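Hi P.,

Sorry for the delay on this. The queue was packed all week, but I finally got your sequence through. Input first:
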Amino acid sequence: MTVLSRRGFAVAGLGALLVGCGSGGEGVRVSSDDDGSVGTVQAAGGGETSGAAKRVGPVIPVDLRIPSIGVDTPLLSLGLAGDGTVEVPPVTAHNRAGWYRYSPAPGRTGPSVVLGHLTVGDYGPGVFHRLPELRRGDEITARLSDGGAPVFRVTSVRTVPKSAFPTREVYGDTARPELRLITCGGTRTGDGYSANVIVFAELERG
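Then the structure:
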């Protein structure tokens, strides 16, 4: 079953899109959802991404600031890899977070999704290394290419096993502008991390 989003992309089978948590900072993986189905994100209408890109429009986020944990990062634009997985920022010394461009821009209706690494291999901590420290009420500001700067407030921070990633809660439609920040978490093993840390936030102003 394919569920179409009002934002112009589809979650085929509602497969979970997880941040890869390998020791080198691998990419987001398509994984089983609550019902055991597996799918990929596609653009509505059969194309892989073109319809979604048109719906996002010209305004994009250019940086993200989270004062309480010292994050001030430019935002890369992330799409889909050839295998249907979601891209993540490259593993570099000057690690940046990335906005999944087939989600709404921050401040528009729906969940805007930003991905960042917890660690970046031999370079050490990633841009979202302190994400688990966020608490309800903490402020997040996204600066947009048109000069706008919507401000969000954290509503919850959850650590979930990769096998139980809450796809509908992260990528499903919402009635108001919201924000999702995703990184790795849980126990570190030889292959990476066992879980994802997900921050949920709602628009306060902007």
